[in-house]
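Quick one, tokens below. Sequence please?
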């Protein structure tokens, strides 16, 4: 994905002939800005959110923007995404049948070996490297996934270094809105982030046009640029691709089925794991929220007793309460039947913990109490003299956060079909 751009060009609004000279600057660490000097555009902010540009190098740009304001130098437009390669009249018409994404760290995960051979031939290379993914994986009635690869050859004297890049392609049987394909691609980036233990940011996103087969590159700003620190960080993958190669298609399919159930929890998990400027106490709070969110979506034990039984208990309690206090007590009882954080973590440990995980936390009951008491302290500033010694701080809080994170990883990967035996064998890598 383009990280920086600074070019002059001509700009106009859709369905208008008047063109304005302007300068487009984009920095993934800063902002997306179009400056139209000495031009005062009477933009109200509701009629259009798109402006077209043709840059000095001839590239066609469709820029989506949120803010346009006037100043003494002209008009400045601020946006968050743009297309390179076409002019679109409105967002609704931007439909594609495929998206091709290069994820951070994905090529290393699929093939972590650099191949050296003497005088390789293109035919031999293609035969060797394209056998891994000869056909797409069908993940639903509408979508399939194809893992494509490109081979680069660097010749040094008589030795040739062969490197392979992998691209994650989502194919749709019928054209769909580009944001739907982007959303799906981001959902799969979370899978690679968990498995490879490295934030799988999209390095490049390309759509393919149906009519002429041309490529349209999509560029956008990340919501939290602090996550980018991970681009240079090398890690050992938790699960090696070769170990799940036979079941990889089923894992991709299951991941799509779990999209709605996993997204909110994984958003919290990623924010906690990959935001370098976040205090450790905030990381812990997000991780505690993530594990509660995950449990409520993948486990059935979310209540202490059946709804019918609880209604009777609640009714009996309220019958003993004076009328002026009933509303207060009813509010307190509204969520009293929900599973507690203690119950949720205990069930997740019982279902998904590996021997390495149990060994690291040492005492299951003590670990659960520490998570619960620490969460209450940092969330509600709740201090009880009897349990204050369980509040984790500094390095202890760091390790407690990591343990909760690892439990989430084990639960998620188990749910999408990775064998317990494989998780048991490799879970030492998490530590």
């Amino acid at each position: 994905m383009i990280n920086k751009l600074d070019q002059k060009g001509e700009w106009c609004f859709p369905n208008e002939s008047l063109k304005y000279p302007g300068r487009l600057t984009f920095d993934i660490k800063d902002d997306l800005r179009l400056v139209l000097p000495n031009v005062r555009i009477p933009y109200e902010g509701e009629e259009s959110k798109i402006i077209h540009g043709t840059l000095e190098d001839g590239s066609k740009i469709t820029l989506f923007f949120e803010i346009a304001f006037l100043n003494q130098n002209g008009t400045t437009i601020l946006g968050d995404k743009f297309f390179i390669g076409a002019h679109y009249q409105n967002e609704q018409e931007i439909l594609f049948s495929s998206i091709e994404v290069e994820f951070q760290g994905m090529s290393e995960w699929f093939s972590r070996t650099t191949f050296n051979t003497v005088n390789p031939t293109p035919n031999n290379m293609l035969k060797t490297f394209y056998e891994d993914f000869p056909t797409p994986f069908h993940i639903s009635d509408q979508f399939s996934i194809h893992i494509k690869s490109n081979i680069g050859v660097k010749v040094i004297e008589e030795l040739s270094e062969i490197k392979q890049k992998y691209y994650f392609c989502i194919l749709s049987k019928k054209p769909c809105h580009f944001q739907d394909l982007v959303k799906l691609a981001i959902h799969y980036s979370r899978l690679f982030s968990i498995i490879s233990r490295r934030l799988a940011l999209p390095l490049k996103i390309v759509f393919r046009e149906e009519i002429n087969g041309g490529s349209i590159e999509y560029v956008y700003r990340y919501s939290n640029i602090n996550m980018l620190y991970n681009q240079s960080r090398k890690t050992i993958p938790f699960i090696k691709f070769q170990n799940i190669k036979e079941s990889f298609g089923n894992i991709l399919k299951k991941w799509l089925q779990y999209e709605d159930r996993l997204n909110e929890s994984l958003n919290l998990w990623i924010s906690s794991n990959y935001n370098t400027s976040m205090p450790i106490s905030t990381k812990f709070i997000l991780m505690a929220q993530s594990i509660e969110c995950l449990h409520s979506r993948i486990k059935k034990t979310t209540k202490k007793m059946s709804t019918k039984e609880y209604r009777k208990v609640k009714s009996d309690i309220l019958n003993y309460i004076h009328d002026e206090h009933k509303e207060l007590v009813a509010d307190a009882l509204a969520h009293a039947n929900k599973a507690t954080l203690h119950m949720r973590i205990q069930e997740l440990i019982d279902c998904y913990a590996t021997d390495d995980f149990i060994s690291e936390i040492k005492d299951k009951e003590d670990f659960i109490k520490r998570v619960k008491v620490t969460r209450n302290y940092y969330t509600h500033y709740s201090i009880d003299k009897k349990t204050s010694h369980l509040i984790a701080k500094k390095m202890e809080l760091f390790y407690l956060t990591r343990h909760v994170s690892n439990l989430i990883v084990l639960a998620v990967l188990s749910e999408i079909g990775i064998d317990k035996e494989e998780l048991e064998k490799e879970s030492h890598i998490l530590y």
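Residues 113-118, 124-131, 225-232 have pLDDT under 50 and may be disordered. The two ends are 32 Å apart (CA to CA).
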